[in-house]
Batch of 2 targets.
Target 1
Amino acid sequence: MFSFNPKRYFIRAAKYLVYLAVFITLFIILFASVSGTQLSYDAVFRADTKWQMAAFILFFSIIYPFFGYIKKKVYINDTFEKDREKILQVFLNSNFVLAESNPTNLVFRHKSSLVRLLRMYEDSIVVDFTENPITIEGQRKDVYRLARAIEYSIRVNEE
């Protein structure tokens, strides 16, 4: 079920390295401006923790792509074609739009440009419907939320 794509992994790790570095820098700037101290790392953190902070940022940027992105199987009772409209409606209600479509999968992206920017343009959700169960791949929080919504939508409409 899990397939490792080295190119995708290294791109995500690099993006999270930059993301965390920018976040820490903004935190230092905000803290320095609010407290009225000089703008420096030493004013916010202990001086001897620079290497620890660098290791922390590097560690999380390396490890997060393994845990932040998943594939999840969603069991549907009928074929994908019969439940296609229900599944598309779940994505539309969750502010996702269809970006690509081909005979084996659908690719959705978030509507909001701001959300896409905050997620570093790693917001695509891929639905592979070549077999039952369908497979949803993307950011962990979105995949779990959308999988539950699809299962609920199909179950409610059957009752």
Note: The longest strand covers residues 69-74.
Target 2
Amino acid sequence: MITTTLAPLVAGFAAGGVLILLSHLAFRVGAGSGLREIDQLHFFGRTFSRRESRIVGILIHLILYGLAGSAFGILVQFGMLAHTVLDLTEYLLILTLVFGGVILPLEGHGLFGLEEDPWFPVDLLIANAIWVILFEAILRLMV
């Protein structure tokens, strides 16, 4: 059985993977455009192709989702959050503010970069809500 410290990390990765799969499927079946690519990815002086950039983006988002799951597990262990609907809703709002206010602008989207459509904050909130639901469901299966 997985420990209670590792389970949230794995559940975060798993929920993130499902969410990434759903976002790619939705894009393919006509849900509209995803995040627009601003420019090519440069990392340690190397320029990545569009395909490599997509893979790196997926890996970064999986890591972020895993860290978000791990952070929730840590907050539960310190007694700051619990597995209740109210606490999960609070965590949903925290995730949306951190991802939309810090992570996406660092990637060049949103506040300090390429402006998205007016529905982007709502899309982000819905995506994070789906992640929280998947995360809690997967975590309950694991522990």
Note: The mean pLDDT is 81.
